[in-house]
TrEMBL record, chain A:
Protein name (record): Uncharacterized protein
Organism superkingdom: Bacteria
Annotated source species: Saccharibacillus kuerlensis
From TrEMBL, chain B:
Residues covered by the Polymerase/histidinol phosphatase N-terminal domain: 6-71
Pfam families linked: PHP
Stretches the record annotates as Disordered: 194-238, 349-373
Residue spans of biased composition, Basic and acidic residues class: 226-237, 355-364
The protein's name in its UniProt record: Polymerase/histidinol phosphatase N-terminal domain-containing protein
Length: 156, 423
Protein backbone atom coordinates (compact mmCIF):
# COMPACT_ATOMS: atom_id res chain seq x y z
CA UNK A 1 0.00 0.00 0.00
CA UNK A 2 1.45 3.36 -1.01
CA UNK A 3 1.96 5.67 1.96
CA UNK A 4 3.94 8.47 0.44
CA UNK A 5 5.46 9.65 -2.81
CA UNK A 6 7.02 13.06 -2.61
CA UNK A 7 9.50 15.03 -4.64
CA UNK A 8 11.48 18.12 -3.92
CA UNK A 9 14.25 20.33 -5.09
CA UNK A 10 16.97 21.75 -2.88
CA UNK A 11 19.77 24.26 -3.38
CA UNK A 12 23.19 24.91 -1.81
CA UNK A 13 21.59 27.45 0.55
CA UNK A 14 19.75 24.57 2.18
CA UNK A 15 22.97 22.75 3.04
CA UNK A 16 23.15 21.92 6.75
CA UNK A 17 19.39 21.71 7.21
CA UNK A 18 16.98 18.84 7.76
CA UNK A 19 13.72 18.17 5.96
CA UNK A 20 11.29 16.25 8.12
CA UNK A 21 8.68 14.28 6.22
CA UNK A 22 5.91 12.80 8.41
CA UNK A 23 3.72 9.90 7.36
CA UNK A 24 1.10 7.70 8.99
CA UNK A 25 1.56 3.98 9.28
CA UNK A 26 -1.59 1.87 9.55
CA UNK A 27 -2.21 -1.40 11.37
CA UNK A 28 -0.85 -4.78 10.26
CA UNK A 29 2.16 -3.59 8.34
CA UNK A 30 4.57 -6.51 7.99
CA UNK A 31 7.18 -4.70 6.01
CA UNK A 32 7.87 -1.03 5.50
CA UNK A 33 9.63 -0.09 2.27
CA UNK A 34 11.44 3.13 1.43
CA UNK A 35 13.00 4.26 -1.79
CA UNK A 36 15.04 7.44 -1.72
CA UNK A 37 16.95 8.96 -4.59
CA UNK A 38 18.57 12.23 -5.44
CA UNK A 39 20.34 13.67 -8.47
CA UNK A 40 22.72 14.91 -9.55
CA UNK A 41 25.29 13.35 -7.22
CA UNK A 42 28.39 15.03 -8.63
CA UNK A 43 29.26 18.63 -9.31
CA UNK A 44 30.52 18.38 -12.91
CA UNK A 45 31.63 22.00 -13.21
CA UNK A 46 35.29 21.72 -12.28
CA UNK A 47 35.90 25.43 -12.01
CA UNK A 48 33.01 25.86 -9.63
CA UNK A 49 34.21 22.88 -7.59
CA UNK A 50 37.70 24.30 -7.25
CA UNK A 51 36.29 27.68 -6.24
CA UNK A 52 34.21 26.01 -3.51
CA UNK A 53 37.20 24.05 -2.29
CA UNK A 54 39.39 27.13 -2.10
CA UNK A 55 36.74 28.86 -0.01
CA UNK A 56 36.73 25.93 2.38
CA UNK A 57 40.54 25.82 2.56
CA UNK A 58 40.43 29.36 3.95
CA UNK A 59 38.25 28.07 6.77
CA UNK A 60 39.87 24.76 7.52
CA UNK A 61 43.51 24.81 6.49
CA UNK A 62 46.32 26.74 8.16
CA UNK A 63 47.46 29.76 6.11
CA UNK A 64 50.89 28.24 5.53
CA UNK A 65 49.38 25.12 3.95
CA UNK A 66 46.71 26.73 1.79
CA UNK A 67 48.89 27.22 -1.25
CA UNK A 68 49.85 23.56 -1.28
CA UNK A 69 46.20 22.58 -0.85
CA UNK A 70 45.11 24.83 -3.71
CA UNK A 71 47.62 23.12 -5.97
CA UNK A 72 46.34 19.67 -5.00
CA UNK A 73 42.57 20.05 -5.24
CA UNK A 74 42.32 16.73 -7.10
CA UNK A 75 42.51 14.80 -3.85
CA UNK A 76 39.15 16.34 -2.88
CA UNK A 77 37.47 16.07 -6.29
CA UNK A 78 34.86 15.41 -7.48
CA UNK A 79 32.59 17.22 -5.07
CA UNK A 80 29.37 15.44 -4.22
CA UNK A 81 25.95 16.21 -2.83
CA UNK A 82 25.21 14.28 0.33
CA UNK A 83 21.72 13.70 1.65
CA UNK A 84 21.15 11.00 4.27
CA UNK A 85 17.99 9.37 5.54
CA UNK A 86 16.99 8.74 9.14
CA UNK A 87 13.74 7.28 10.39
CA UNK A 88 11.58 7.73 13.48
CA UNK A 89 8.52 5.79 14.57
CA UNK A 90 5.93 7.05 17.03
CA UNK A 91 8.20 6.06 19.92
CA UNK A 92 11.58 7.15 18.70
CA UNK A 93 14.61 6.65 16.50
CA UNK A 94 14.75 3.74 14.08
CA UNK A 95 18.19 4.39 12.66
CA UNK A 96 19.92 6.19 9.85
CA UNK A 97 21.56 5.30 6.57
CA UNK A 98 24.61 7.52 6.43
CA UNK A 99 26.13 6.51 3.14
CA UNK A 100 26.86 8.05 -0.20
CA UNK A 101 24.61 6.09 -2.57
CA UNK A 102 22.25 8.47 -4.39
CA UNK A 103 19.69 5.66 -4.66
CA UNK A 104 18.74 3.77 -1.53
CA UNK A 105 16.17 1.01 -1.36
CA UNK A 106 15.45 0.30 2.26
CA UNK A 107 13.10 -1.82 4.31
CA UNK A 108 12.18 -2.71 7.87
CA UNK A 109 10.30 -5.61 9.32
CA UNK A 110 9.94 -7.19 12.72
CA UNK A 111 12.92 -9.49 12.15
CA UNK A 112 15.10 -7.70 9.68
CA UNK A 113 16.06 -4.32 8.33
CA UNK A 114 18.41 -2.70 5.87
CA UNK A 115 21.81 -1.87 7.36
CA UNK A 116 21.51 1.28 9.45
CA UNK A 117 17.84 0.75 10.30
CA UNK A 118 16.55 -1.14 13.31
CA UNK A 119 14.29 -4.15 12.95
CA UNK A 120 11.35 -4.43 15.31
CA UNK A 121 7.65 -3.86 15.70
CA UNK A 122 6.10 -1.73 12.99
CA UNK A 123 3.71 0.05 15.29
CA UNK A 124 0.83 1.98 13.73
CA UNK A 125 0.99 5.74 14.19
CA UNK A 126 2.96 8.80 13.22
CA UNK A 127 6.31 8.07 11.65
CA UNK A 128 8.73 10.41 9.92
CA UNK A 129 11.65 10.38 7.57
CA UNK A 130 14.31 13.03 8.10
CA UNK A 131 16.41 14.01 5.12
CA UNK A 132 19.67 15.54 6.30
CA UNK A 133 21.17 17.82 3.71
CA UNK A 134 24.80 17.58 4.75
CA UNK A 135 26.04 19.30 1.65
CA UNK A 136 24.50 20.48 -1.61
CA UNK A 137 27.11 21.63 -4.11
CA UNK A 138 25.12 21.62 -7.36
CA UNK A 139 22.87 24.55 -8.26
CA UNK A 140 19.85 22.38 -7.74
CA UNK A 141 19.40 18.86 -6.50
CA UNK A 142 16.18 16.90 -7.01
CA UNK A 143 15.05 14.20 -4.65
CA UNK A 144 12.22 11.73 -4.47
CA UNK A 145 11.04 9.68 -1.52
CA UNK A 146 8.58 6.80 -1.84
CA UNK A 147 7.23 4.82 1.08
CA UNK A 148 4.91 1.84 0.94
CA UNK A 149 3.77 -0.84 3.31
CA UNK A 150 3.38 -4.51 2.53
CA UNK A 151 1.16 -6.78 4.56
CA UNK A 152 3.27 -9.84 3.94
CA UNK A 153 7.01 -10.28 3.60
CA UNK A 154 7.83 -9.72 -0.03
CA UNK A 155 10.67 -8.26 -1.95
CA UNK A 156 10.49 -4.53 -2.41
CA UNK B 1 46.74 -3.24 36.65
CA UNK B 2 46.11 -4.23 33.13
CA UNK B 3 46.28 -2.25 29.93
CA UNK B 4 43.80 -3.13 27.18
CA UNK B 5 44.62 -2.43 23.54
CA UNK B 6 41.68 -0.51 22.07
CA UNK B 7 40.60 0.73 18.65
CA UNK B 8 38.02 3.38 19.46
CA UNK B 9 36.74 4.57 16.06
CA UNK B 10 35.29 2.10 13.55
CA UNK B 11 32.54 1.74 10.94
CA UNK B 12 30.62 -1.07 9.27
CA UNK B 13 28.20 -1.28 6.37
CA UNK B 14 25.53 -0.03 8.74
CA UNK B 15 26.88 3.38 7.78
CA UNK B 16 29.51 3.99 5.10
CA UNK B 17 31.95 1.25 6.10
CA UNK B 18 32.67 -1.62 3.74
CA UNK B 19 32.86 -4.39 6.33
CA UNK B 20 30.57 -6.36 8.59
CA UNK B 21 31.05 -6.30 12.36
CA UNK B 22 32.43 -9.84 12.09
CA UNK B 23 35.00 -8.82 9.49
CA UNK B 24 35.96 -5.78 11.56
CA UNK B 25 36.32 -7.90 14.72
CA UNK B 26 38.45 -10.49 12.91
CA UNK B 27 40.69 -7.74 11.55
CA UNK B 28 41.02 -6.09 14.96
CA UNK B 29 41.84 -9.38 16.70
CA UNK B 30 44.46 -10.08 14.05
CA UNK B 31 46.09 -6.74 14.81
CA UNK B 32 46.30 -7.54 18.50
CA UNK B 33 43.41 -5.44 19.78
CA UNK B 34 41.53 -6.54 22.91
CA UNK B 35 38.72 -4.03 22.45
CA UNK B 36 36.98 -2.10 19.70
CA UNK B 37 34.31 0.56 19.91
CA UNK B 38 31.78 0.46 17.10
CA UNK B 39 31.07 4.06 16.15
CA UNK B 40 28.95 3.94 13.01
CA UNK B 41 27.59 7.22 11.69
CA UNK B 42 24.30 8.08 13.38
CA UNK B 43 23.16 4.52 14.00
CA UNK B 44 23.69 1.71 16.47
CA UNK B 45 22.02 -0.96 14.37
CA UNK B 46 25.37 -2.58 13.63
CA UNK B 47 25.56 -3.99 17.15
CA UNK B 48 23.11 -6.80 16.38
CA UNK B 49 24.89 -10.09 17.03
CA UNK B 50 27.63 -8.42 19.09
CA UNK B 51 27.86 -11.12 21.79
CA UNK B 52 28.52 -14.00 19.39
CA UNK B 53 31.12 -11.96 17.53
CA UNK B 54 32.82 -11.01 20.80
CA UNK B 55 33.06 -14.66 21.76
CA UNK B 56 34.21 -15.83 18.37
CA UNK B 57 37.08 -13.36 18.23
CA UNK B 58 37.91 -12.98 21.94
CA UNK B 59 37.26 -9.28 21.67
CA UNK B 60 35.19 -6.79 23.64
CA UNK B 61 32.96 -4.54 21.55
CA UNK B 62 31.93 -1.23 23.15
CA UNK B 63 28.69 0.21 21.76
CA UNK B 64 28.98 3.68 20.33
CA UNK B 65 27.94 6.06 17.62
CA UNK B 66 29.67 8.85 15.75
CA UNK B 67 27.47 11.91 15.76
CA UNK B 68 27.87 12.86 12.14
CA UNK B 69 26.45 16.35 12.12
CA UNK B 70 26.74 19.52 10.09
CA UNK B 71 29.24 21.20 12.43
CA UNK B 72 31.45 18.41 13.66
CA UNK B 73 31.83 14.70 14.21
CA UNK B 74 31.61 13.54 17.81
CA UNK B 75 32.44 10.02 18.90
CA UNK B 76 30.18 8.79 21.67
CA UNK B 77 30.79 5.45 23.37
CA UNK B 78 29.50 3.42 26.27
CA UNK B 79 25.83 4.23 25.84
CA UNK B 80 23.30 1.60 24.90
CA UNK B 81 20.59 4.04 23.93
CA UNK B 82 20.43 6.50 21.10
CA UNK B 83 21.09 10.18 21.72
CA UNK B 84 19.63 12.41 19.01
CA UNK B 85 22.29 14.08 16.91
CA UNK B 86 19.93 16.04 14.68
CA UNK B 87 19.03 18.97 16.90
CA UNK B 88 22.52 20.27 17.52
CA UNK B 89 23.06 23.79 16.19
CA UNK B 90 26.43 25.55 16.27
CA UNK B 91 25.90 26.76 19.84
CA UNK B 92 24.26 23.81 21.51
CA UNK B 93 26.61 20.85 21.42
CA UNK B 94 26.82 21.20 25.22
CA UNK B 95 23.25 19.88 25.49
CA UNK B 96 24.20 17.03 23.18
CA UNK B 97 27.14 16.08 25.38
CA UNK B 98 24.92 16.31 28.47
CA UNK B 99 22.45 13.91 26.85
CA UNK B 100 25.25 11.45 26.08
CA UNK B 101 26.32 11.64 29.73
CA UNK B 102 22.75 11.18 30.92
CA UNK B 103 22.65 7.91 28.95
CA UNK B 104 25.83 6.72 30.62
CA UNK B 105 28.17 7.42 27.75
CA UNK B 106 31.19 9.62 27.13
CA UNK B 107 31.86 12.00 24.25
CA UNK B 108 34.96 12.95 22.32
CA UNK B 109 35.83 15.28 19.47
CA UNK B 110 36.53 13.14 16.39
CA UNK B 111 39.29 14.28 13.99
CA UNK B 112 38.57 17.93 14.93
CA UNK B 113 40.83 19.47 12.28
CA UNK B 114 40.03 17.26 9.30
CA UNK B 115 38.94 19.41 6.36
CA UNK B 116 35.20 20.15 6.44
CA UNK B 117 32.49 20.58 3.80
CA UNK B 118 32.30 20.14 0.90
CA UNK B 119 35.34 17.82 0.82
CA UNK B 120 34.36 15.99 4.01
CA UNK B 121 30.95 17.04 5.25
CA UNK B 122 30.91 18.26 8.84
CA UNK B 123 34.36 16.78 9.50
CA UNK B 124 35.95 19.96 10.90
CA UNK B 125 34.90 20.76 14.48
CA UNK B 126 33.02 24.07 14.36
CA UNK B 127 30.82 23.76 17.44
CA UNK B 128 31.36 26.33 20.11
CA UNK B 129 31.86 24.50 23.40
CA UNK B 130 30.71 26.44 26.46
CA UNK B 131 32.01 24.03 29.05
CA UNK B 132 35.18 22.17 28.15
CA UNK B 133 34.91 20.31 31.45
CA UNK B 134 32.13 18.29 29.87
CA UNK B 135 34.33 17.04 27.02
CA UNK B 136 35.61 13.59 27.95
CA UNK B 137 38.24 13.17 25.28
CA UNK B 138 39.77 14.48 22.10
CA UNK B 139 40.76 12.12 19.29
CA UNK B 140 44.15 13.70 18.79
CA UNK B 141 45.42 11.03 16.43
CA UNK B 142 43.17 10.04 13.53
CA UNK B 143 43.95 7.46 10.85
CA UNK B 144 47.04 5.35 10.24
CA UNK B 145 50.55 6.75 10.88
CA UNK B 146 48.74 9.62 12.58
CA UNK B 147 51.68 11.43 14.13
CA UNK B 148 52.94 12.85 10.82
CA UNK B 149 49.66 14.51 9.88
CA UNK B 150 49.18 18.25 10.25
CA UNK B 151 45.52 17.83 11.23
CA UNK B 152 46.55 15.62 14.11
CA UNK B 153 49.27 17.99 15.18
CA UNK B 154 46.61 20.70 15.46
CA UNK B 155 44.38 18.37 17.48
CA UNK B 156 47.28 17.47 19.76
CA UNK B 157 48.01 21.18 20.28
CA UNK B 158 44.33 21.83 21.06
CA UNK B 159 44.51 19.13 23.75
CA UNK B 160 47.69 20.67 25.20
CA UNK B 161 46.10 24.13 25.21
CA UNK B 162 43.08 22.82 27.12
CA UNK B 163 45.35 21.07 29.66
CA UNK B 164 47.21 24.36 30.08
CA UNK B 165 43.91 26.13 30.73
CA UNK B 166 43.34 23.65 33.54
CA UNK B 167 40.82 21.27 31.94
CA UNK B 168 41.20 17.57 32.53
CA UNK B 169 40.54 15.96 29.17
CA UNK B 170 41.70 12.59 27.89
CA UNK B 171 43.36 12.05 24.50
CA UNK B 172 42.91 9.05 22.24
CA UNK B 173 43.68 7.72 18.79
CA UNK B 174 41.09 6.37 16.37
CA UNK B 175 41.73 4.82 12.99
CA UNK B 176 38.30 5.78 11.65
CA UNK B 177 38.42 2.30 10.24
CA UNK B 178 36.05 1.75 7.30
CA UNK B 179 37.33 -1.35 5.54
CA UNK B 180 39.65 -4.33 5.75
CA UNK B 181 42.44 -3.18 3.53
CA UNK B 182 46.07 -4.04 4.03
CA UNK B 183 48.19 -1.10 5.05
CA UNK B 184 51.89 -0.94 5.79
CA UNK B 185 51.45 2.30 7.71
CA UNK B 186 51.94 2.21 11.48
CA UNK B 187 48.71 1.59 13.39
CA UNK B 188 47.94 3.48 16.55
CA UNK B 189 46.58 1.87 19.69
CA UNK B 190 44.86 3.51 22.65
CA UNK B 191 45.62 1.53 25.79
CA UNK B 192 43.14 1.84 28.66
CA UNK B 193 44.04 0.81 32.19
CA UNK B 194 41.71 -1.44 34.16
CA UNK B 195 42.21 -2.49 37.76
CA UNK B 196 43.20 -6.14 37.98
CA UNK B 197 41.32 -6.67 41.22
CA UNK B 198 38.04 -5.66 39.70
CA UNK B 199 38.49 -6.84 36.14
CA UNK B 200 36.78 -10.17 36.66
CA UNK B 201 33.26 -9.11 35.79
CA UNK B 202 33.55 -10.33 32.26
CA UNK B 203 36.11 -12.34 30.41
CA UNK B 204 37.87 -10.85 27.47
CA UNK B 205 40.35 -12.78 25.40
CA UNK B 206 43.43 -11.47 23.69
CA UNK B 207 46.71 -10.41 25.08
CA UNK B 208 46.10 -7.82 27.71
CA UNK B 209 49.24 -6.26 28.95
CA UNK B 210 50.29 -6.40 32.55
CA UNK B 211 52.17 -3.31 33.54
CA UNK B 212 54.25 -5.41 35.91
CA UNK B 213 53.21 -3.55 39.01
CA UNK B 214 50.79 -4.95 41.52
CA UNK B 215 50.68 -2.27 44.15
CA UNK B 216 47.50 -0.30 44.41
CA UNK B 217 48.03 3.40 44.40
CA UNK B 218 46.81 4.40 47.83
CA UNK B 219 45.90 7.99 47.16
CA UNK B 220 45.04 8.21 43.51
CA UNK B 221 43.56 11.60 43.64
CA UNK B 222 40.39 13.34 44.50
CA UNK B 223 38.30 12.33 41.56
CA UNK B 224 34.63 12.30 42.38
CA UNK B 225 33.91 9.54 39.88
CA UNK B 226 36.47 7.30 41.54
CA UNK B 227 34.73 7.81 44.85
CA UNK B 228 31.34 7.14 43.32
CA UNK B 229 32.63 3.87 41.94
CA UNK B 230 34.11 2.84 45.28
CA UNK B 231 30.80 3.49 46.94
CA UNK B 232 29.06 1.45 44.30
CA UNK B 233 31.36 -1.54 44.71
CA UNK B 234 30.88 -1.37 48.47
CA UNK B 235 27.17 -1.43 47.91
CA UNK B 236 27.51 -4.34 45.52
CA UNK B 237 29.66 -6.25 47.97
CA UNK B 238 27.00 -5.72 50.61
CA UNK B 239 24.43 -7.07 48.19
CA UNK B 240 26.55 -10.14 47.63
CA UNK B 241 27.62 -9.60 44.03
CA UNK B 242 30.88 -7.71 44.30
CA UNK B 243 32.53 -6.27 41.25
CA UNK B 244 29.71 -7.01 38.86
CA UNK B 245 30.51 -3.95 36.80
CA UNK B 246 31.09 -5.12 33.25
CA UNK B 247 34.45 -4.80 31.55
CA UNK B 248 32.75 -2.46 29.07
CA UNK B 249 31.78 -0.10 31.89
CA UNK B 250 35.26 -0.27 33.38
CA UNK B 251 36.84 0.62 30.06
CA UNK B 252 34.52 3.61 29.74
CA UNK B 253 35.35 4.61 33.30
CA UNK B 254 39.06 4.32 32.53
CA UNK B 255 38.78 6.69 29.58
CA UNK B 256 36.48 9.04 31.51
CA UNK B 257 39.23 9.30 34.12
CA UNK B 258 41.99 9.63 31.56
CA UNK B 259 43.72 6.30 32.27
CA UNK B 260 44.94 6.11 28.69
CA UNK B 261 48.18 5.83 26.78
CA UNK B 262 48.50 6.08 23.01
CA UNK B 263 51.18 4.59 20.79
CA UNK B 264 52.25 3.41 17.35
CA UNK B 265 54.91 1.26 19.00
CA UNK B 266 55.79 0.34 22.60
CA UNK B 267 53.39 0.96 25.47
CA UNK B 268 54.54 3.93 27.53
CA UNK B 269 53.21 4.26 31.07
CA UNK B 270 54.18 6.25 34.11
CA UNK B 271 53.61 6.47 37.79
CA UNK B 272 54.42 9.38 39.96
CA UNK B 273 55.55 9.27 43.57
CA UNK B 274 55.06 12.33 45.71
CA UNK B 275 54.65 12.84 49.42
CA UNK B 276 54.77 9.12 50.06
CA UNK B 277 51.88 8.39 47.73
CA UNK B 278 51.77 6.86 44.28
CA UNK B 279 49.76 8.39 41.45
CA UNK B 280 48.85 6.75 38.16
CA UNK B 281 47.94 8.28 34.83
CA UNK B 282 44.66 10.21 35.06
CA UNK B 283 44.87 10.81 38.80
CA UNK B 284 45.26 14.09 40.65
CA UNK B 285 48.13 14.97 42.96
CA UNK B 286 46.66 17.08 45.74
CA UNK B 287 48.13 20.46 46.62
CA UNK B 288 50.49 20.52 49.58
CA UNK B 289 47.95 21.79 52.10
CA UNK B 290 45.33 19.30 51.09
CA UNK B 291 47.66 16.35 51.27
CA UNK B 292 48.49 17.24 54.83
CA UNK B 293 44.86 17.56 55.76
CA UNK B 294 43.88 14.27 54.23
CA UNK B 295 46.71 11.89 54.87
CA UNK B 296 49.08 13.60 57.25
CA UNK B 297 51.88 13.50 54.67
CA UNK B 298 53.79 16.58 53.75
CA UNK B 299 53.78 18.95 50.84
CA UNK B 300 53.02 16.48 48.06
CA UNK B 301 52.92 18.85 45.13
CA UNK B 302 55.93 20.96 46.03
CA UNK B 303 58.37 18.27 47.02
CA UNK B 304 60.79 16.63 44.66
CA UNK B 305 58.76 14.05 42.85
CA UNK B 306 59.94 10.88 41.21
CA UNK B 307 58.45 9.55 38.03
CA UNK B 308 58.57 5.85 37.18
CA UNK B 309 58.44 5.38 33.46
CA UNK B 310 57.91 2.02 31.81
CA UNK B 311 58.42 1.26 28.16
CA UNK B 312 56.99 -2.10 27.19
CA UNK B 313 58.28 -3.32 23.84
CA UNK B 314 56.54 -6.67 24.13
CA UNK B 315 53.02 -5.41 23.41
CA UNK B 316 51.39 -6.66 20.20
CA UNK B 317 54.59 -8.59 19.52
CA UNK B 318 55.44 -8.89 15.84
CA UNK B 319 52.78 -6.44 14.75
CA UNK B 320 54.94 -3.34 14.68
CA UNK B 321 58.62 -2.54 14.40
CA UNK B 322 60.97 0.34 14.95
CA UNK B 323 64.53 0.71 13.74
CA UNK B 324 67.34 0.54 16.32
CA UNK B 325 68.00 4.02 17.55
CA UNK B 326 68.30 6.32 20.52
CA UNK B 327 64.82 7.49 21.42
CA UNK B 328 63.97 10.62 23.35
CA UNK B 329 61.73 10.19 26.35
CA UNK B 330 60.27 13.51 27.38
CA UNK B 331 58.33 14.77 30.33
CA UNK B 332 56.06 17.55 29.20
CA UNK B 333 53.87 19.83 31.30
CA UNK B 334 52.34 23.31 31.28
CA UNK B 335 55.83 24.47 32.26
CA UNK B 336 57.15 23.13 28.95
CA UNK B 337 59.55 20.28 28.37
CA UNK B 338 60.69 19.42 31.87
CA UNK B 339 63.02 16.57 31.02
CA UNK B 340 64.43 14.83 27.97
CA UNK B 341 66.18 11.49 28.33
CA UNK B 342 68.15 9.56 25.75
CA UNK B 343 66.91 6.01 25.52
CA UNK B 344 69.11 3.80 23.38
CA UNK B 345 67.34 0.68 22.11
CA UNK B 346 68.55 -1.94 22.38
CA UNK B 347 70.57 -0.98 25.47
CA UNK B 348 74.14 -2.23 25.66
CA UNK B 349 74.37 -2.76 29.40
CA UNK B 350 71.94 -4.48 31.75
CA UNK B 351 71.53 -1.35 33.79
CA UNK B 352 72.66 2.13 33.16
CA UNK B 353 72.86 5.23 35.25
CA UNK B 354 73.30 8.76 34.12
CA UNK B 355 72.36 12.26 35.06
CA UNK B 356 70.57 14.55 32.69
CA UNK B 357 71.61 18.14 32.19
CA UNK B 358 68.29 19.18 33.74
CA UNK B 359 69.35 17.70 37.04
CA UNK B 360 66.96 14.81 36.68
CA UNK B 361 68.11 11.45 37.87
CA UNK B 362 67.74 8.60 35.44
CA UNK B 363 67.96 4.96 36.25
CA UNK B 364 67.43 2.51 33.44
CA UNK B 365 66.61 -1.11 33.99
CA UNK B 366 65.87 -3.64 31.33
CA UNK B 367 64.13 -6.93 31.72
CA UNK B 368 63.34 -9.89 29.52
CA UNK B 369 65.94 -9.17 26.84
CA UNK B 370 65.02 -5.50 26.70
CA UNK B 371 61.32 -6.23 26.31
CA UNK B 372 60.63 -3.85 29.14
CA UNK B 373 62.61 -0.82 30.09
CA UNK B 374 62.09 0.97 33.36
CA UNK B 375 63.33 4.49 33.88
CA UNK B 376 63.20 6.62 36.94
CA UNK B 377 63.36 10.38 36.74
CA UNK B 378 63.37 12.98 39.46
CA UNK B 379 61.56 16.14 38.58
CA UNK B 380 63.08 19.41 39.69
CA UNK B 381 61.10 21.99 41.59
CA UNK B 382 59.35 24.51 39.42
CA UNK B 383 61.82 27.33 39.40
CA UNK B 384 59.46 30.30 39.45
CA UNK B 385 55.99 31.12 40.70
CA UNK B 386 54.39 28.91 38.08
CA UNK B 387 52.75 25.80 39.38
CA UNK B 388 52.57 22.54 37.56
CA UNK B 389 49.04 21.70 36.40
CA UNK B 390 49.67 18.49 34.51
CA UNK B 391 52.42 16.18 33.37
CA UNK B 392 52.64 13.65 30.55
CA UNK B 393 55.36 11.46 29.07
CA UNK B 394 56.15 11.30 25.37
CA UNK B 395 58.38 9.02 23.32
CA UNK B 396 60.01 10.52 20.24
CA UNK B 397 62.05 8.79 17.58
CA UNK B 398 62.50 7.93 13.93
CA UNK B 399 59.85 5.96 12.14
CA UNK B 400 59.74 5.59 8.36
CA UNK B 401 62.48 8.13 8.10
CA UNK B 402 60.58 10.83 9.99
CA UNK B 403 61.25 12.09 13.50
CA UNK B 404 57.88 11.81 15.21
CA UNK B 405 56.02 11.38 18.45
CA UNK B 406 55.76 7.60 18.78
CA UNK B 407 53.83 7.38 22.04
CA UNK B 408 52.34 9.62 24.69
CA UNK B 409 50.61 9.08 27.99
CA UNK B 410 47.54 10.92 29.16
CA UNK B 411 48.18 13.38 31.94
CA UNK B 412 48.67 13.14 35.67
CA UNK B 413 47.11 16.28 37.13
CA UNK B 414 48.13 18.54 39.97
CA UNK B 415 45.89 20.56 42.20
CA UNK B 416 47.16 24.09 41.92
CA UNK B 417 46.50 27.52 43.38
CA UNK B 418 44.66 30.45 41.77
CA UNK B 419 41.56 29.83 39.70
CA UNK B 420 41.87 26.07 39.66
CA UNK B 421 39.51 24.31 37.28
CA UNK B 422 38.47 20.84 38.18
CA UNK B 423 35.79 18.37 37.18
ZN1 LIG C 1 34.01 11.35 11.23
ZN1 LIG D 1 34.28 7.96 11.55
Amino acid sequence: MKLLDTEGCVTPEESRTHIRIPFELGENCERLNLRFQYAPKKLENRERAIALLKESYDLYILPEHREYAAEHTDRHLPLNNLITVSLDDARGYRGACHRHDPLQELFLSRQEASPGLMAGELTAGSWSVTLSLHCIVTEICDYRLQIWASEKEESA
Amino acid sequence: MTWFACELHTHTLHSDGRQTLGELAAGAAGLGFDVIALTDHNTMSGLVGKEEIEQEHGLTIIPGMEWTTFYGHMVTIGLSEFADWRQAGLDDIDQGIAEVHRLGGIAGLAHPFRIGSPACTGCFWEYKIDDWNAVDYIEVWSGTFPSIQTNNRRAFDLWTDKLNEGYRIAATSGRDWHEQKETDEPISVTYLEIDEETADGKKAGGSRTDSGSKETPAGNGSCAAEKARDTESEKNAADGFAASVSLEDRLIQALREGRASVTIGPLLTMKLNAGGESYRIGSVVPAAGQAEEHSGTTAAANELISVDLLLDFSVRAGLWSLPEQTFKLKLQSNLGEELSLDVPVPVSAEAEESASDHGGHIKTETQNQAQQMRLEAKLPHPTDKLSRKWLRAELWGHMRGVYVRIAFTNAIYFEYEEGATSR
